[in-house]
Amino acid sequence: MRVDLNSDMGEGFGAWSMGDDEAMLDIVTSANVACGWHAGDPSIMHRTAEIAKAKGVAIGAHPGFNDLWGFGRRVITGHTMDELEKQVAYQIGALQACAALAGHRVTYVKTHGALGNMAAADDATALAIGRAIKGVDPSLVYMVMPGQATERAAEKLGLRAVREIYADRTYADDGNLTSRKIEGSVIHDPTLAAARVVSMLRERAITTTSGRKIPAEIDTICVHGDNPAAVAMARAVREALIAEGFALAPFAPA
Amino acid sequence: MRVDLNSDMGEGFGAWSMGDDEAMLDIVTSANVACGWHAGDPSIMHRTAEIAKAKGVAIGAHPGFNDLWGFGRRVITGHTMDELEKQVAYQIGALQACAALAGHRVTYVKTHGALGNMAAADDATALAIGRAIKGVDPSLVYMVMPGQATERAAEKLGLRAVREIYADRTYADDGNLTSRKIEGSVIHDPTLAAARVVSMLRERAITTTSGRKIPAEIDTICVHGDNPAAVAMARAVREALIAEGFALAPFAPA
Amino acid sequence: MRVDLNSDMGEGFGAWSMGDDEAMLDIVTSANVACGWHAGDPSIMHRTAEIAKAKGVAIGAHPGFNDLWGFGRRVITGHTMDELEKQVAYQIGALQACAALAGHRVTYVKTHGALGNMAAADDATALAIGRAIKGVDPSLVYMVMPGQATERAAEKLGLRAVREIYADRTYADDGNLTSRKIEGSVIHDPTLAAARVVSMLRERAITTTSGRKIPAEIDTICVHGDNPAAVAMARAVREALIAEGFALAPFAPA
Amino acid sequence: MRVDLNSDMGEGFGAWSMGDDEAMLDIVTSANVACGWHAGDPSIMHRTAEIAKAKGVAIGAHPGFNDLWGFGRRVITGHTMDELEKQVAYQIGALQACAALAGHRVTYVKTHGALGNMAAADDATALAIGRAIKGVDPSLVYMVMPGQATERAAEKLGLRAVREIYADRTYADDGNLTSRKIEGSVIHDPTLAAARVVSMLRERAITTTSGRKIPAEIDTICVHGDNPAAVAMARAVREALIAEGFALAPFAPA
């Protein structure tokens, strides 16, 4: 009964900040650290790694498209898969170096935003990311969506995978997230979100909006921290998990 | 009687190219690879590492200011030394990862442009760069200017240093380069440049414009490749060194 | 029997150059000037406007996606049409100001690369661009593809349109360019290209790969200058037009 | 007894926000709008112009160095004055176009951050900015520091100048701001700041830290809005001015 809680971190840029990282680093066990392409800069990356280290939080690279303006949420097409592979590798290496200066170590990779959505849905993209991970360090863990292209890519490449679910999102019958455009696709009630997470972990299955249960090993729960309500939900999920007897720990400690 | 020839490489960006890297990789023994901040992108970095590997050329990280528009030649002030340290680490790590995908390995660091000029002249800057190198991988070699701040920083931090001279530049009595604004500070005649290099290597001293000889161990010669005349000079220097019995080899093979 | 020759210009960036603008400004009558988002910078924009002014060449804004790395050739989705409108306006205004400093004036707008392709195919995009043009200065001319979304947008918004064909490309039966991926879609023979252009102008029709003739008023011919072969083709087209009695002149002089 | 209140606005970027522009646009009479180089993007620029228009607030271009990461606070050297002139023109034009789409009009220019500091202290820089203003539109007003290089540049170029003082800063005997590094150089008490402003307006003089009074026509007061305390101070200054019988109005209405 062990599970990990992960959240995106270090998503400020220069003078701009995003979310309450200090609070979140007391809640989660793994921090997905932006690598300077959709957010983050070397100082923020270093500082995030430093605090994570002090609090026993694992860190992962959180690469995205080269798109500070769009916060990595814009879809950019026109790269070959070879180019994409190098772009992901670049970001992993950059974080590894900043983490080394903080005495910490990157142990996993989770893609961000539009790149993450493409990776879940498209095998070629998921494989390109997997090749980047493997080429940089084959001991890095690939954070994947259960049943999606990223899980298949990790398996094909022989990378260790961890499967994640989102605390605040509903799932379609194909096991992927429902579109944010659909009403009700984002859960705002912390109690409901926490109860859903506990139930999916106990049942070892993703519950879809139609009530279907898709069997899935769940290793980590994604929570958010970009506004006070999100932090409150993250805390609620953490407390519910502890109350239900789950041990919270990084899936890949440094 | 061993010496290394180094040159800046991979300084295109996206659709733009700079210099004749293919030709230069047949001339030099060490390639200073731009890391995406003043030039270069992940694909170019990977490709440069791949060709270097195939030709037995060592690669070093060539970090600069975050200034694609100014090609890293603009002085940017307002960073703390701590911030600068992380900026250099970021670039080293990014290249390490791209090189790993090409089966090659970064063995040294040489700073670029305005950052390089600052590092030669300013101890705090040279030390910040040295701390980045040491923090990322203490076995990385720091390419320094003999007698300048970079050499002192490497010594203070216990990093291996290699000392370089420029084939096409004259030296002032303080051992630093004369300003490009002074007429005659840049040597355009390949024969003259080659003769100067051979003479300084033989005498183990830098010859200044006043005729002074400053004793210096010289490990590597910097040549350029950004235009056909530069490539011709690089080739002339290489041929003169071989003719004089020097063995050309990377100071830090992968 | 008047026609205009247009080409993309000012597509260097900082230390990087692209094409032979000086040569092209002796060939064309209208210069599409990059506005700093896919290429170009204020100094290049100013310089291009200055030379164009001296040579009697009209200038147009050549806005693209905010994508220096991809040279505006990558498709970026996730902007609303409202956002796109402001992005295009921004670029037009920036060039207007740089041109003013050179004593020249922007008289038209032609979109670049991936944005241009989207505009030709998608009415919403073409209209957003048209609204930007109209909002900044309703006397600006919209350069369009005959029969495509851009032509419809100009008409709907009451903007003056000029219709262009490409000297080096073949056309499908829908009047749009054939994909570059199809063999033969790009014409490399200057004589053939020149003959095609003359024939389409005389017939007032676009000839498609199936031999169909699509009636079209043709106001301007797009030629390229990014390599010596392209410059040679541009010159061949110019000479053929003059030999056939066409008067070359900007469709919208400053 | 008329005076203007100005503040920097539109200094978010993409997903990141900065300050409370909505609140500030109810307090000030002139908004210095970031032009996308140190902050701001076309959508933010347009939205800021739109709200300003609705509230009767004048807008000015607020150009800075091309430095989103450093928020325009880093000093970047290595541009010629000619290059700087084009950079400023570019930004003015970009805002003019975005403002046109919002039905508003740019009436003045105030430089930002490190560029602003350089302009106050250096005649060549102040003149380059002035030439940009004059070249783009000679009816634009140049916001200057009384007694500094910017004031001299405006006079030399025949541009209308407005003189500003800062509500929250102390002044040295040379009439320039004291360094932020000196304790007490930034005023945090809204009542004190408001009283100082009223006093300097009444006395038509800048009071320096030594008690000296430097005669100065004061046309506008700069306030800030990047945090709740700053907004509170801005409001206090506004209320004090109204209570003292000053009429608040833009110095250059659209």
Helix/strand layout:
The structure is a homotetramer of 254-residue chains.
Chain A (H helix, E strand, L loop, with lengths): L1 E8 L11 H4 L5 E5 L7 H14 L2 E5 L12 E3 L3 H21 L4 E4 L3 H9 L1 H14 L4 E4 L4 H9 L3 E6 L23 H14 L1 E3 L5 E3 L4 E3 L5 H16 L3 E2 L6
Parallel strand pairs in A: 1-2, 1-10, 1-11, 2-3, 3-5, 5-6, 6-7, 7-10
Antiparallel strand pairs in A: 8-9
Helix pairs in contact in A: 2-3, 3-5, 4-5, 5-6, 7-8
The number of helical elements of chain A comes to 8
The fraction of residues assigned to DSSP E strands of chain A is: 15-25%
* Largest β-sheet summary of chain A: 7 strands, parallel, barrel
Total beta-strand segments of chain A: 11
CATH architecture of chain A: Alpha-Beta Barrel
| Strand line-up of the largest beta sheet of chain A | 1-2-3-5-6-7-10
Rounded average pLDDT of chain A: 97
By CATH, the superfamily of chain A comes out as Glycoside hydrolase/deacetylase
Which value, in Å, is the CA radius of gyration of chain A? 17 Å
**Domain unit count of chain A:** 1
* Oligomeric state of this protein: homotetramer
- Topology-level CATH name of chain A: TIM Barrel
Structural class of chain A: alpha/beta
The shape of chain A is globular
Low-confidence stretches of chain A: none
